[in-house]
Amino acid sequence: MKSHETLLAESEAIIYDIAQHEGFELVDVEFHREPGGLVLRVLIDRPSGGVTVQNCSDISRQIGDVLEVKDIIAFPYSLEVSSPGLNRPLKKPQDFATRIGETVSITTLEPFDGRKHFKGRITRLEDGVIGIEIDGCGFSVPLAAVKKAHVEYDFSKLKHPKKKH
């Protein structure tokens, strides 16, 4: 039986090719157990125009067909394809580089500067190290140490239309 890492790597390579061919960016692939069973979750995005429900359906059908023909996953699982949404996960160096100046939430594998959780503004990405500013203090987090990261949005800064009386 294939290991979890092997299944994920083989599946991700196929999914990447399909996403690229169809003009999408593969944001993330996760394979894990949930209460309803095993789930292969795929996040796709498109630089211009975003992702529609129909796009997700089309990509899902293609992924499912290819994975079935290649017999990559030999047990029952659910396939979910969606857009990353507002709290887009950050995985690759380019994800962090394009978010300089934005607020992110980062969880590390082990503590750095006495903490594992960082929520602040990305100031730089140099030599595999993310610069993040939190309340005026600068921190350096090695990209290799990031367990999980995503963009944080401050909805309080959205302008609300004035109500007419």
Task: Give an overview in words.
By secondary structure, this protein is of the alpha+beta class. It folds into two domains: 4-82, 2-Layer Sandwich (GMP Synthetase, Chain A, domain 3), CATH 3.30.300; 93-154, SH3 type barrels. Helix content is 25%, strand content 39%. The protein has three helices and eight strands. It has helices at residues 4-21, 53-70, 93-97; strands at 25-34, 37-45, 78-82, 103-112, 115-126, 129-134, 137-142, 146-151. The protein has a five-stranded antiparallel beta sheet. A three-stranded mixed beta sheet has the order 1-2-3. A hairpin with a 2-residue loop joins strand 6 (129-134) and strand 7. The longest helix is centred in the N-terminal third of the chain and has 18 residues, at 4-21. It is globular, with a radius of gyration of 19 Å. 16% of the residues are buried. The mean pLDDT is 89.
Short description:
The protein is built from 3 helices and 8 strands; from the N terminus they run H-E-E-H-E-H-E-E-E-E-E. It has helices at residues 4-21, 53-70, 93-97; strands at residues 25-34, 37-45, 78-82, 103-112, 115-126, 129-134, 137-142, 146-151.
